[in-house]
Design brief:
The structure is a single chain. The protein is α/β, with parallel strands linked by helices. It contains 2 helices and 7 strands, in the order βαβββαβββ. The chain has helices at about 20-30, 90-100; strands at about 5-15, 45-50, 60-70, 80-85, 105-110, 115-120, 125-130. The protein has a 7-stranded mixed beta sheet with strand order 2-3-1-4-7-6-5. The longest helix is centred in the first third of the chain and has 12 residues, at about 20-30. It is globular. The termini are far apart. The model has no long low-confidence stretch (mean pLDDT about 90).
């Protein structure tokens, strides 16, 4: 079976005071925004940069997303967290999951940086599946 998830695209969770909690993680654990976020200079979400195991020339990022506790971003799930998993081929993964009785929730979002949709685990926790656009994370960058 071909590997479905290729990495952790993000950990999203709710907080009573997202700014204060983000500041705490930055101050005490150095979980902080990167100076050159692939999402744009106005995005201040902390990111972990890493390299694809099978193709080290490809950058990847894991977002550390702190949301207000009253956000509706995790709906229709009711959890306090949501994982975002990277996939190479969203359509194939969704087709395989559907054969196993797991349906996507909502539509597939097609954005300049890639495509994503959601599924749910058996306890109702939302899971985002994200297929980044080829070379999006490496655009305009040289190492």
């Amino acid at each position: 079976m071909k590997k479905r998830v290729t990495g952790l695209g993000g950990i999203f969770f709710k907080a009573k005071d997202p700014k204060a909690l983000s500041d705490w993680y930055d101050k005490h654990l150095n979980v902080s925004p990167l100076p050159d976020s692939p999402w744009g200079e106005d995005d201040d979400a902390p990111l972990f940069e890493w390299r694809d195991k099978d193709d080290p020339s490809q950058k990847r990022y894991t977002v550390f997303g702190v949301f207000p506790d009253d956000t509706d971003y995790f709906e229709p799930g009711n959890g306090a967290f949501m994982f975002n998993f990277l996939v190479d081929d969203l359509d194939t993964v969704l087709a395989d999951l559907e054969k196993e009785g797991i349906k996507k929730i909502g539509k597939i979002h097609d954005l300049p940086f890639g495509r994503f949709t959601r599924i749910s685990d058996p306890e109702g926790n939302m899971i985002e599946l994200f297929e980044p656009k080829k070379d999006f994370f490496n655009k305009g960058k040289t190492d």
